[in-house]
Amino acid sequence: MFVSSVSAVQGKGSVPQAIPEDVNLKEMSGKFLFGYGQSKNVAEVLCARALARGIPTVSVRAGFVGGSTTTNVTNYDMMWDFIKTMKVRQVSLESDDHIQITPVDYLAECVTKLVFSERFWTRSAVHLSPPLEKCITGEKHHH
């Protein structure tokens, strides 16, 4: 199992519609602005090749993984610096993009349940998106 990201299939620019789980990864190759998305795409291509050869493997696309819903502890990275800076400076970006943050404990619970499902291992990728009450969504704000 490879815990991937929607970055593996997003490519350049905004995505106007939902991305299917069975998106053609080879078509996405070369359409990335940054190395992070490229690396996720390459790893998913390798997983898909292994699955085609009969090796049970699946990519779980979780979106942006955030902190626990019980402890609020999160991995500290550039995204949180960015959010904190906007809050301190009382500014926001004008963008139609949305960030959906998947709590790490929700992700762990889902992966633990899915790993025991035979149907889970027949797919090349699964999108994991929490129900609205379990996630934090970025809404468009104007100041």
Automatic annotation (TrEMBL):
A Pfam family reported for this protein in Swiss-Prot or TrEMBL: NAD_binding_4
Thioester reductase (TE) domain sequence ranges: 2-109
Protein name as catalogued: Thioester reductase (TE) domain-containing protein
Lineage, highest ranks first: Eukaryota, Fungi, Fungi incertae sedis, Chytridiomycota, Chytridiomycota incertae sedis
